[in-house]
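Human:
Class, as today's exercise, you are to examine the entry below, and be ready to discuss the fold:
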Amino acid sequence: MLEVGDGHAIHWEISGNPDGKPAVLLHGGPGSGSSPRHRQMFDPTKYRIVQFDQRNCGHSTPNARTPEVDLSANTTAALVEDIERVRTLLGIDRWLVWGGSWGTTLGLTYAETYPESATELVLSSAVTTSGTEVDWVTRAMGRVFPERWRDFVDVVPAESRDGNLALAYNRLLMNPDPAVHGPAALAWCDWEDVHVSIAEGYQPFLRDADPGFQLCFARLVTHYWGHAGFLEEDQLVRNAGRLAGIPTFLAHGRRDISAPADIAVALAAEIPDARLFIAEDEGHGGPAMTDWIISVTDSLVN
């Protein structure tokens, strides 16, 4: 555990070769927590793999599943500084930065803030968490899944349905009463399972997750989405020139309807010398994307 201030302590761990190439893995969500499965993309005999649970999720404390929790010190800028604290703690000069989904927003923000700390960027299912992207997922997606979207919106009080739906949900989710935040967490997770992918064989999992995890996840997602990632609109694309000299690799699924491929294409067009792989038959992740990333990480140590 690492105390990072503001009453927060984050859980971190290391695996692989202590003398290997350093890599930090940034999980998605926000709020999913780190997972051992992310390590499969890195050869453990050649990489020193660093993972940590971002503020308020996983094994980090306090956890957002706590009925009354304060998220005010949980922002993208704070998470970026947490990454630097872990790097400094471990005595790592520079490291490869991998991010998946929300982790790509965090990874891009980190590398644009501290380009001297990143040797490479490897991004899977890229998002920038812009207001436009959040509106797409929470509102425009209703044109694709109209009946399910109506179920999603009906949970919100009528007077809030025409505004920022992520913030409207967050108000329900932050209510300490389980009778209020419990159904809201389930409804939010159900909608996430609907929109995240249209790839054949995709298996939803959030609606069947532990209620405590659902609450933690939904609170953190809506906290970040409701504030467009605490970033300026198009900030990450606009500042992509700062990544010059950092080899960047992006993998994306053509059938990722939650995060359409134009996000990754726009980033690749602005990041100097970026390489983009689009898996035609996959959505928000998949085996072809994983295989491509493994080929990339292997190439960086062989």
Q: What stands out?
A: The chain has a mean pLDDT of 95. The two ends are 33 Å apart (CA to CA). The chain has two domains: 2-128+230-299, 132-228.
